[in-house]
Structure formats: C-alpha cells, structure tokens
Amino acid sequence: MSLPLFDTTLHAFALLFSGDPALWAIIWVSLKTSVLGLLLAAPPAILLGYVIAMYRFRGRRIAIWLAQAALSLPTVLIGLLLYLLLSRSGPLGDFRWLFSQPGIVFGQLVVALPVLLAFTLAAVQALDPRYAETAVALGASRRQVMLRVLYEGRFGVMAAVLSGFGRVISEVGCALMVGGNIEGQTRTITTAIALETSKGEFAQGIALGIVLVTLALLMNGALMLLQGDAHVARNRG
Amino acid sequence: MSISIHTSISAAVYENENVPKRDERRKALLGVRGLRKRHGERLLFDIERIEIATHSAYVLTGINGAGKSTLLRVLGGLERAEIDSLRFDTEDVLRVHPYPRALREAIVYVHQHPILFSTSVAHNIGYGLQMRKLPQDEIARAVEAAMAWAGVTHLQGTDPTKLSGGEKQRVALARARVLQPKLLLLDEPTSNLDGAAREQVIELIPTMVEAGSSIVIACHDRDLIGLPGVQRIKLRDGHLEYR
Fold first, then answer.
1. In whole angstroms, how far apart are CA B31 and each of B57, B58, B96, B171?
2. Does B101 touch chain A (CB under 8 A)?
3. pTM of the model
4. In a domain, A14, yes or no
5. Residue numbers in chain A where pLDDT is lower than 50
C-alpha cells in the first residue's frame, strides 16, 4: 500500500528535476520580484532603522511603535491597500502596475520595509554605544559613523535582510491581490501553491514548497557561515 | 620600576636644548566658562571655569559618582551640557553641540574600557587618519610608528576580540596618539589593569605630552597622580578645585 503523501512527494521531485518549464518560470518570477523588492526596500529601511535607533527626536517612540506594529500587518491587507492605490481609478493607476511584475515588486517593497526597518532598529539598538562614540571621538563625520556602526552591526543587518527576504518570498496575500496570479507573468511560488492546492494538484504545490524550504535553509546556512563564531567572540571580548 | 625609568626619559627630553622648556611652550589651549550638567532635575556639576594649557598633563580626581567621566565626555563632545562660552586654541567656538569638525579632530576621548572595531589592530589604529582622508602610504607609516610606540607591532594582524585588557588599552592609546591630538582625554586608563599591563600604560602617557598633546586623565591611580609635572584637579560637590 502506498501513502498518498509519499507518492505526491516523489512526483514533486520528478517535476523539479525534469526541468518543467512552467514550474521553473514560477520560481523565476518569485525570485526576481522578491529580490528586486528587497533591494529597493533595503537602503531606505536600513537608513531609517539606523536614524531611529541612534537619534533622539520628537516622535521617536511613535516611530518605533509604528515600525513594530507594521510587522503584524497582514500582507493581504497591504495587498488590498495597494490594489486600491494601483487600480485604474487609484492615485497610482497611471503607472499601470496592477497585475504586472512591477506591481508585485512594489508590493514586496512595502511588505519588506517594516521587517527590514524593525530588525535593523533592533540590531543597532543592541550594539554597544561605544562603537559610535569611538568613531565620533576619532573624528568621523555623521555618515562615517553610520557606516562604521552598520559594519559593526552587520550580522544583525544581514539577519534583517534575510528576514525581509523570508517574508516577501513566502507571503501570498499581497502577491495574489496585486499580481493577479497570471500564469507565466505574475504567478509566484506561493500563489501557485494556493491555486494548485485548490485544484487538488498537490505535486506541483509540494515541489514549490520544497523550493521554499531549500531557499530558507540555504539563506540561513549562508548567514551562519558568515557569522562564524563572531557572536561568541564579541560576547567574550 | 618602569615609572622611574620613564621619569628619567621625560627629564632627558625636557633637558634637551632643542626642545623648548615646558613653561616656555605653554599657552592657553582650552578655556571653558560656565559649564553645567544636569541629570534630570539633579545638577551634577556647575563649573565656573576650566583652563587647560598646551603641553600639559592634568589628573582629574574625585569620588565615584562625582562626574569625572561625564566631564571628560562633555569636553570630548560626546555629551551635551550647558556651556556659557568655549575658547579653543585662541578661537571662540560658537557652536558646541555638536562640536565643529576642527574641534572634533583636535580633541580625542578614550573610554575607560576602550572598544576596538572588529577589523584588525592596524586598521583600528589607522581609522582616525582614514577619516581625515590622508594618503594610504602616510597612514601606513604613521600606524607602523604608533604600533612600535605602543609595543603592539606583533599584534597588528590579530583579531581585537582576542586581546587582553592591557593590549586593548595600548592599542586605544596608539589609535589616539597617531592623530596627534591637541587635547587627549583619558578616562581611568589603568582602572581595569594590573601588574605589567598597568605599568606599560603608565609609561606611555608622559610621552604623549612630550609629543605635543595636553592630557586630562580621570583616575584614582596614585602612580598616575604622582607622575612628575602632572597638575591635579579635583571635582568635588560639583565644583572644580585646582591644586
């Protein structure tokens, strides 16, 4: 007697290794839109996270509160808001981004922003304040101090970027509402899994799930390799 | 032992006829009028005036919690305080928070427990020179000389997290000295050291004055307080007493 899950998983591996063009097109769209969205979100989010962590200004606590609260925003709600913004009658309708890859990239940018900001904020806040003070005491300018602090907190910032990637590659709500799940154009790993499952086609869903899990393992493994025993050494030092 | 050896070196330098006598080369370096620091409602100190001369060393004493470290941090531009007027090297400083670039480059503050950047010892020592955008070959020469001065040449490629407390303190002093600051502020440089490490750090301090810096050291260390030519300032009940 064969188990349905076992058979479906075997079929999923067969799909992956057979080089099924439809499957790999979905993976490519997912990777492309996620990486682009992340690359666009990272510079402003890291800068904002640094500024909120390092400077005291009126409304700072509110900024921290909003950044952390934004982490809990369901991506489907972000998708709904972006749908209204990008639809023909919306304020950004002229861009014609709805149901297109640029629309998904824009959505991923908005989804990644709070994760990158909140994690960078936490990473910089956790860093020993003497790093920034030492840079100032040695004559560094504000920009030079920022570069030094972000370098010293690089593992935290890298973890922020990886968490942001994890969020955008695995979210389904925003990609579905803004992208429209159009085959060969805006179908991503997660929207495809949702669709195939609803049709009772589990093999492709499991194959795409394997890709997601493999990506998560690879990204986190790479971060661990980069970190080495730095956190141990820092605690000791 | 090492202190007495060093004292003789200092005396030899001052006796050298090519080097101006200490009193001849002294002039006003830093003058502060009306410096007040509050922690919430509490007034930590209210200092009428501070006068620091060039080519001079001062020890700043006072009981724990008197505000010695805070005073050094304020003078180093790391902490805000109410300041009526500040004059540095014959120039009135109009903007105190933050310090203008010229002042940031002239005054260097070293933490009680210095932190080293997670690069190499050589990079740490050259960091301030890089911030000043000096040519790389000039930086390399200055770093090499500073490492030799601090006795840390053998550590130049070492991971800073693997250094002992004394080695870190010497690297921090080399990192400050290489910038040839007009004013060097040292916060308890020997407080976490003992034995040979402490003596090595004490030996380095007078040579920095000889190299042209003025130094203010917050400390309780009797050997530092007793170094020849060092003037004592005491922070007591929020006021400065010159001795």
1. 15, 14, 13, 30
2. yes
3. 0.86
4. no
5. 1, 232-237
Considering only CB atoms, B161 lies closest to which of A144, A151, A237, namely: A237
A144, closest residue in chain B (CA to CA): B131
Q: Residue B210 is part of a domain; what is its CATH number? A: 3.40.50.300
* Residue among B159, B160, B175 whose CB faces A138 most closely: B175
Question: Is A124 within 8 Å of A49 (Cβ atoms)?
Answer: yes
CA proximity to A184, closest of A8, A20, A66? A20
Could you give phi then psi for residue A111, rounded to 5 degrees? -70, -40
**Residue B126: per-residue pLDDT:** 97
Q: Which residues of A touch B159 (CB under 8 A)?
A: 233
If one compares B97 and B87, the residue with the highest pLDDT of the two is B87
Interface of B with A in 10-29 (CB under 8 A): none
Q: Mean of the per-residue pLDDT values for chain B?
A: 87
Supply the pLDDT for residue B112: 93
Closest approach of chain B CAs to the CA of A131, in angstroms?
Answer: 7
Q: Using a CB–CB cutoff of 8 Å, tell me whether B179 touches chain A.
A: yes
Average pLDDT over residues B49-71: 93
Position B18 scores a pLDDT of 42
Kindly report the CATH number assigned to the domain that includes residue A145: 1.10.3720.10
Least CB–CB distance from A137: residue in B108, B113, B159? B108
Does residue A228 sit within a domain?
no
Q: Residues in chain A whose beta carbon is closer than 8 A to a beta carbon of chain B?
A: 128, 130-131, 133-141, 144, 148, 151-152, 230, 233-234, 236-237
A16 within a domain of the structure (yes/no): no
The torsion angles phi and psi of A113, rounded to 5 degrees, stand at -50, -55
pLDDT for residue B51: 94
Residue A168: which of A23, A21, A24, A32 has the closest Cα? A32
Nearest to B50 by CA among B78, B66, B30: B30
pLDDT, position B1: 35
What integer pLDDT is reported at residue A179 of this predicted model?
95
Q: Is the dihedral of CA A171, A177, A178, A181 positive or negative?
A: positive
What Rg value do the Cα atoms of chain A yield, rounded? 21
- Complex ipTM: 0.86
Task: Return the higher-pLDDT residue of A173 and B5.
Answer: A173
- Determine, for residues B115 and A234 on separate chains, whether the beta-carbon distance falls below 8 Å: no
pLDDT above 70: residue B22: no
| Domain hosting residue B223, numbered range | 2-242
What DSSP letter does each residue of B164-204 carry, written as one string?
-HHHHHHHHHHHHHTT--SEEEEESTTTT--HHHHHHHHHH
Count the domains in chain B: 1
Q: Which pLDDT does position B151 carry in this prediction? A: 93
